[in-house]
Design goal:
single chain, alpha/beta, FAD/NAD(P)-binding domain, 3 domains, five-stranded parallel beta sheet, 19 helices, 21 strands, binds 3-acetylpyridine adenine dinucleotide
Length: 648
């Protein structure tokens, strides 16, 4: 059988090949060599990754063995080039399985086989597309108009997938551009904390300039997707959804939108897909006197580029991922930066965090057949289930500051990193080691930039809590009055206020937020009882702390949503409503899972919990489990609803 991917022929010289191979991820390279030669000995020899060292970028392969692997690859690539860049038949399924085992350095548990095989897409399939709408007449599809709310990562994905099945839609977007959180967060230094080869749509590869790209690059990627897939013309920009109402007569939705100062307008929809994101509605803290400050004050998610910080005294409130990224930038401009820290973050060291991808790596990713696929796969594995065990609670563990022996080891490693980096500044180190267990909050990815900034003479960290904001600055509980020119709130987002500030009325006219009563819940993060044909992407309990990428979740969710739409069209029903029993049982299982994770423990506060302390954000299980849960809807979990009156 032919291999599924086309690559440009190799024309590089021996020296160019040699130079490119220096940048290779050797385990992925050895696996790719099987595709070029048909020879399984490349993954059966002694150049092999070691399971226990999977977090090492080269899987623990010693440098001398890496060099041997590169030398073998040089010979293979030369022969491939000189033979006209022709690939042998594709490896058999059993061989692919063996290559998978090789790459992740351990026998893949049986139940992972299907999942990993699909994620690989080795036959050229689109792993997260809906398997088939065959048999659904075009007229039925065309009559099923969907309103998508939001044109960020999830909304664009929804549009691309609906287009593939010829289902019409309109996207309502509050901003003037696509990109969602990547449009909203424009603070200096903003970048992704998930490596881009997995933080990207599975079907849309990109020549990423960085391992972890900056916000402008991410925004460009989503703009590129909107252009390439012809989405733009179906987006109503600068338009907000005021409300959505399920009309019980027609079993359809009426969505009330407003553009600018215009009059409200109602759009009818067979289904509504909410893709509103979680990290775009700033959360300003309830600190006394906040409104009284006379100078400029703004939130990190609403950066005031018109305010020149040069020579100013700036207060930064909060030390989460946002502050972590912009503090080094503003420290170069401001006269003085004072950081008000309530809780320090755990930092995961990553030396290449802001580094560009070397040319050799670009070349390998674009020219060596199947290298990119295996590389993405190895990252996927390394960033998925590997970390989960270290943040799982051992109920018999009693040491404060950790939740298990593995978590304690993680704590020691991360503490040693901080101790090393701040060895020369005991005053900073004293307040830099978090008391909560690693994994209790999202870890920040660090290449030393933030800690270097803290050591600057014009930067100071204070742990004296803020008592109030005054017209001129900050008054602390310790009694200090500090004067500032500018206040920057890096205090996060209203992530647990799902779908706010829209009003969403379901069966019986019940408003969704009243129904939730402060605790957002959904079945598989997607369906809510009493709200038929309302599907939420990145909804309740679909966020992750240590494993995977939110794009993986969105792709799984959207395949499930298409499964629902297909069910409706095949059965000829108007709407489907998830059964309360299925929803409740599912959420009990989610709660039980979260109670056993570091972020669910009682001493930890974060944006993952709602004000009552309930974990409304996080998925507590493996990626395999989410993939399995969302493969396809089970009709037994839903009631199907007919229209009582004809649709106008
Ligand atoms: O917000 P946060 P963020 N007084 O909620 C503090 C994603 N993200 O914008 O921990 C004083 O994490 C609060 O203190 P505490 C990422 O998923 C990703 O930084 O509550 N301080 C905390 O220090 C991230 O998790 C990227 O004690 C107050 C900070 O404000 C999420 O967005 C980059 C306070 C809020 O931290 C949110 O990150 C940026 C008060 N009254 C963001 N109230 C990347 O991809 C709150 N705080 C890298």
């Amino acid at each position: 059988m032919e291999q599924s991917e086309a690559y440009p022929p190799i024309t590089a010289s021996d020296d160019e090949l040699r130079a490119a191979l220096e940048a290779a991820h050797v385990p992925s390279l050895m696996t790719a060599l099987v595709h070029l030669t048909g020879d399984m000995s490349h993954v059966r020899g002694d150049i092999r990754p070691i399971a226990a060292l999977f977090q090492d970028p080269q899987g623990g392969i010693p440098p001398a063995d890496q060099a041997r692997g590169r030398a073998i690859a040089l010979d293979v690539l030369r022969a491939y080039r000189d033979g006209g860049s022709k690939l042998p038949p594709r490896p058999s399924d059993a061989e692919i399985e063996e290559m998978t085992d090789y790459l992740i350095g351990e026998g893949v548990p049986r139940n992972y086989k299907d999942f990993l095989h699909a994620e690989l897409g080795m036959e050229g399939q689109d792993p997260y597309a809906h398997p088939s709408f065959e048999g659904i007449p075009m007229a039925a599809r065309q009559g099923f108009h969907v309103v998508i709310i939001g044109a960020g990562m999830s909304g664009l994905l929804a549009a691309i997938r609906l287009d593939q099945e010829h289902i019409p839609y309109t996207i309502i977007e509050k901003n003037g551009e696509v990109g969602g959180t990547w449009w909203q967060n424009q603070y200096p230094g903003c970048r992704v904390d998930n490596q881009n080869h997995i933080y990207s749509y599975s079907f849309e590869t990109y020549d990423w300039p960085y391992w972890y790209s900056s916000q402008p690059v991410l925004l460009e990627y989503f703009k590129h997707c909107a252009e390439k897939y012809g989405i733009r013309s179906k987006i109503r920009f600068n338009t907000v959804v005021d409300s959505a109402r399920f009309e019980e007569g027609t079993a359809r939705w009426s969505v009330t939108v407003r553009t600018g100062d215009g009059a409200p307008e109602v759009i009818e929809a067979a289904a509504v897909i909410s893709a509103v994101g979680q990290l775009n509605r700033p959360r300003l803290p309830a600190i006394d006197g906040r409104e009284s400050f006379r100078g400029p004050a703004f939130h990190s998610g609403e950066w005031r580029h018109d305010i020149d910080l040069t020579g100013k005294r700036v207060a930064v409130i909060g030390t989460g991922a946002s502050a972590f990224q912009f503090v080094p930038h503003i420290a170069e401009q401001a006269r003085e930066v004072v950081i008000f820290q309530r809780t320090p973050p755990w930092m995961g060291p990553q030396p290449v965090y802001r580094q560009p991808i070397p040319n050799g790596k670009h070349w390998l990713l674009t020219h060596v057949p199947f290298y990119r696929k295996w590389y993405r796969f190895s990252l996927f594995w390394r960033s998925s289930e590997g970390m989960l065990k270290s943040v799982t609670v051992d109920p018999n563990w009693t040491e404060p500051g950790s939740v298990s022996a593995a978590n304690q080891r993680m704590r020691q490693t991360l503490t040693a990193y901080l101790t090393r980096e701040l060895g020369d500044r005991p005053d900073l180190l004293e307040h830099a080691v978090p008391q909560y267990p690693p994994g209790g909050k999202r870890m920040v990815v660090d290449d030393g930039n933030y800690l270097r900034a803290l050591k600057r003479p014009n930067v100071r960290v204070t742990v004296d809590p803020i008592a109030s904001i005054t017209p001129t600055g900050v008054h602390t509980r310790g009694g200090a009055d500090e004067a500032f020119d500018v206040l920057i709130y890096a205090t996060g987002f209203q992530a647990s206020a799902f779908l706010m500030p829209m009003a969403v009325y379901g069966i019986g006219g019940v408003e969704l937020h009243d129904h939730w009563a402060g605790t957002a819940r959904a079945y598989k993060g997607i369906s809510i009882p009493g709200y038929p044909n309302l599907f939420t992407l990145y909804g309740p309990n679909t966020n992750i702390v240590v494993n995977g990428s939110t794009i993986f979740f969105a792709e799984c969710e959207m395949r499930y949503v298409l499964g629902c739409i297909r069910l409706l069209l095949a059965r000829g029903n108007a709407s489907m409503d998830v059964l309360p029993q299925a929803h409740d049982t599912y959420n009990e299982w989610i709660d039980a899972g979260n109670a056993l994770m570091a972020w669910g423990t009682s001493g930890v506060t974060s944006w993952y919990k709602n004000p009552d302390g309930h974990v409304t954000q996080n998925w507590p299980y493996t990626l395999l489990e989410f993939w399995t849960q969302t493969r396809a809807p089970d009709p037994q979990d839903y009631t199907f609803i007919e229209a009582r009156v004809p649709v106008a």
